[in-house]
């Protein structure tokens, strides 16, 4: 990891972070990393120690993570708004040290040396004397999985220098996409603009104030951006690229983004915590077809499922069997369509709705419903049914008050006009709260 610190030294006066209006240079980042490393070593943090680190994006949190990597520690990043219960994390991974950051970036290190998990995979990895990173899946399909990575392997992807960019790391720091984004920005000597409140208004305000050029986001957030029309209240002309991933993009949302931001390049990204983030190339700004791969990645499709072989793959799960085959190929469980070199991501196998043997992809129905007036957001999911196996249910968030009968009638008419009859929602539920979690991914 020392190569990254040496790169920071090349531009000591360049702004690395803008955090709560505070500008921090790369020279200051190097100083903070050195100070954290010294403090950790004096406290007794050693190679192979597991360290739970609680905090959101800030220069201090990032510097502490790098310092722990230089010490040979295994970092377990969490946020105060994590979708994973902290007690679940500690039970799975165990920990030697517990570090929590306040809003001012001050670290509080627990004297309690924690508890050992006795995890065999962790013990084997410690013998390799390499810094580690443990991230947790959201647990949407069951118990959260602890994903162990070699930190050196993750960082190596960014050794090739990229052009500097001013960007907001939208995904949380306890998410692989968040770690990937912040390493991509800093390794290119760009500027990280942190936003503690990831509301549409605050993101737009930060873009306008700091001339942000790149916004990595989720389709759920971009749909809210369009629905709220908050972009009309701010100058977002500095934006050059908007990338999106972590969930399927409804075509209607992508079409509206393209119409609203014609000057911005829209790029679909694809990655998984288990294998890393692949290089991607959309077939066009208005297309949901994407070509993925790049150095260190191979792809293949088996029975409609995407498999990936990665040089940046995880070491393994702490608490679950591996989804890698004996040749190192990872089963993504993502259903895809193939057109030459391009894929269209249809959704996870676990998200598919089975209506009397017919497969239904939620994003296809969501795309139709999002085109309707007065619809702010929608989530499609399956509900058990005695005869059909499942039926389609739509949870709908409205912009203004409307009766459920009226909404259901309009949804039914729109879906019948564009979709097969078995895809038409049998039930419509009106909700009064957002349909996404703190990671800005869709909830059902």
TrEMBL record:
Molecular function terms, GO-annotated: medium-chain fatty acid-CoA ligase activity
Pfam families: AMP-binding, AMP-binding_C
InterPro entries reported in the protein's UniProt record: AMP-bd_C (IPR025110), AMP-bd_C_sf (IPR045851), AMP-binding_CS (IPR020845), AMP-dep_synth/lig_dom (IPR000873), ANL_N_sf (IPR042099)
Keyword Heme appears in the UniProt entry: no
Any one GO biological process: fatty acid metabolic process
Domain AMP-binding enzyme C-terminal, chain residue ranges per copy: 364-439
Similarity annotation: Belongs to the ATP-dependent AMP-binding enzyme family.
Domain AMP-dependent synthetase/ligase span(s) in chain numbering: 7-281
Keywords (A to Z) from UniProt: Ligase
Protein's name according to its UniProt entry: AMP-dependent synthetase
CDD domains cross-referenced by the UniProt entry: AFD_class_I
Signal peptide (residue range): none
């Amino acid at each position: 990891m020392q190569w990254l610190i040496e790169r920071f030294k090349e531009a000591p006066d360049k702004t690395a972070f803008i955090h709560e209006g505070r500008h921090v240079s790369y020279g200051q980042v190097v100083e903070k990393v050195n100070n954290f490393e010294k403090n950790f070593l004096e406290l007794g943090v050693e190679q192979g120690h597991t360290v739970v680190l609680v905090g959101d994006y800030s220069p201090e949190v990032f510097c502490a993570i790098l310092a722990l990597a230089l010490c040979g520690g295994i970092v377990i990043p969490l946020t105060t708004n994590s979708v994973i219960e902290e007690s679940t994390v500690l039970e799975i991974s165990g920990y030697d040290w517990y570090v929590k950051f306040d809003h001012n970036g001050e670290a509080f290190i627990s004297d309690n040396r924690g508890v050992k998990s006795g995890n065999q995979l962790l013990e084997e990895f410690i013998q390799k004397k390499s810094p580690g990173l443990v991230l947790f899946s959201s647990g949407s399909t069951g118990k959260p999985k602890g994903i162990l990575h070699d930190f050196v392997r993750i960082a190596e992807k960014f050794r090739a220098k990229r052009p500097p960019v001013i960007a907001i790391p939208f995904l949380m720091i306890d998410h692989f996409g968040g770690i990937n984004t912040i390493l991509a920005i800093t390794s290119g000597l760009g500027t990280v603009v942190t936003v503690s409140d990831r509301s549409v208004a605050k993101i737009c305000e930060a873009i306008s104030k700091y001339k942000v050029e790149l916004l990595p986001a989720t389709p759920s957030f971009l749909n809210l951006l369009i629905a709220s029309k908050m972009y009309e209240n701010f100058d977002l002309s500095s934006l050059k690229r908007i990338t999106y991933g972590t969930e399927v993009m409804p075509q209607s949302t992508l079409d509206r983004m393209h119409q609203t931001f014609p000057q911005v390049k829209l790029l679909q990204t694809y990655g998984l915590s288990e294998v890393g983030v692949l290089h991607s190339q959309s077939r066009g700004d208005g297309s949901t077809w994407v070509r993925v791969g790049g150095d260190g990645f191979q792809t293949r499709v088996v029975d409609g499922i995407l498999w990936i072989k990665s040089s940046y793959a995880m070491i393994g799960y702490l608490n679950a069997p591996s989804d890698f085959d004996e040749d190192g190929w990872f089963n993504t469980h993502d259903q895809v369509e193939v057109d030459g070199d391009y894929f269209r991501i249809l959704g996870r196998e676990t998200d598919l709705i089975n209506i009397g043997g017919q497969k239904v992809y939620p994003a296809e129905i969501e795309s139709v419903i999002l085109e309707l007036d007065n619809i702010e957001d929608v989530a499609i999911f399956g509900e058990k049914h005695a005869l059909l196996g499942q039926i389609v249910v739509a949870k709908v968030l409205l912009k203004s008050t409307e009766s459920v009968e009226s909404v259901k009638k309009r949804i039914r008419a729109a879906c019948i006009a564009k979709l097969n009859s078995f895809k038409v929602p049998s039930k419509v539920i009106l909700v009064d709260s957002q349909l996404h979690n703190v990671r800005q991914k869709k909830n059902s």
